[in-house]
Amino acid sequence: MQWPKEIFHVDKPVIAMCHLQALPGDPAYDTAGGMKKVIDKALADLTHLQDGGVDAVMFSNEFSLPYLTKVRPETTAAMARVIGEVMPSIKIPFGVNVLWDPIASIDLAAATGALFIREIISGVYASDFGLWNTNVGETVRHKMRLAPDLKLLYNIVPEAASYLGNRNIVDIAKSTVFNNRPDALCVSGLTAGAETDTQILSSVKAAVPGTVVLCNTGCRLENVERQLSVSDGAVVGSTFKIDGVFENAVDPARVKAFMDKVKSIRH
């Protein structure tokens, strides 16, 4: 339970998402703007997030819709290019999330020096992207080969998917912790920006009291005090966007207002 304080230097850290624009090979990739546009937008969002006082940032290929559960090499390569370009401006701890491929996420973390990944690492799901399987044993061994100190944040309520099998979230949390020893569990709503049920957060936290539990989606100015009263931190994306809209750029005023509230709660 001590590792978040060691990495983020605060209690109940807020990990902000830096959503990368569509990348080469993605359906929505802007061929006219090219990689320069992707890098410029990433740098602008990163700057606004850091200036607003977030505790960490996580780079993800959020606009690579529809997502692959095994990404192609060009996606990981493009993300490494973006992170490499903005690296001189990164002032806070950072992680990566190559949606939805934990092996690729580990590869990217090893290449960039990221301290953590968030992924669907265990379980089998029926999802919008088809039957979604994982191989947690192989994933963890891959991490040990490439980046033994990397922290693995297990998303146990994947967005746009449901666990294949009649098991409730508490049972899933217990067995995930027992079998896999995750560094943290991430509990989500249905989609990016959808509010995480506080009761579910409470149930998971009570079931695995010795494990870090993060609110993974839908943390907003009006509910953050309630969510952080239960969880050990939050991953925040859409809330920081202009008008709180997923597709928009980061709004520095919204970041500052949210983090001012968080800091008042923590102190």
Short description:
The chain is an alpha/beta fold and 267 residues long. It has 9 helices and 11 strands. It has a single domain, classed as TIM Barrel, CATH 3.20.20.
Key phrases:
267 residues, alpha/beta, TIM Barrel, eight-stranded parallel beta sheet, 11 strands, Nucleoside triphosphatase
* Spatial arrangement of strands, main beta sheet: 10-9-7-4-3-2-1-11
What's the count of strands?
11
CATH architecture call: Alpha-Beta Barrel
At the fold tier of CATH, the topology name is TIM Barrel
Helix content: 25-40%
The termini sit apart by 20 Å
Q: What share of residues are in beta strands?
A: 15-25%
Shape annotation: globular
Structural class: alpha/beta
CATH class (first level) name? Alpha Beta
Gyration radius, to the nearest Å?
17 Å
Poorly predicted ranges: none
Specify the number of helices. 9
Mean model confidence by pLDDT: 95
Q: Major β-sheet, in short? A: 8 strands, parallel
The H/E string reads HEHEHEHEEEHEEHEHEHEH
Q: Give the full name of the CATH homologous superfamily.
A: Aldolase class I
Domain module count? 1
Fold and architecture overview:
Helix 2 crosses helix 3 and helix 4 runs parallel beside helix 5 (136-146). Helix 7 links the parallel strand 9 and strand 10 (212-215). It is globular and about 50 Å long. The chain has helices at 3-8, 34-51, 73-86, 102-112, 136-146, 169-180, 198-207, 224-230, 252-266, and strands spanning 14-19, 56-60, 94-97, 116-119, 125-127, 130-132, 151-155, 161-163, 184-187, 212-215, 234-236. It has one domain (3-266): Alpha-Beta Barrel (TIM Barrel), CATH 3.20.20.70. The strands form 2 sheets. The protein has an 8-stranded parallel beta sheet with strand order 10-9-7-4-3-2-1-11. A 3-stranded antiparallel beta sheet has the order 6-5-8, with no helix packed on it. The protein has 267 residues and is an alpha/beta fold. Keywords: Plasmid. InterPro entries: BtpA, RibuloseP-bd_barrel. It holds the Pfam family BtpA. This is Nucleoside triphosphatase. Belongs to the BtpA family.
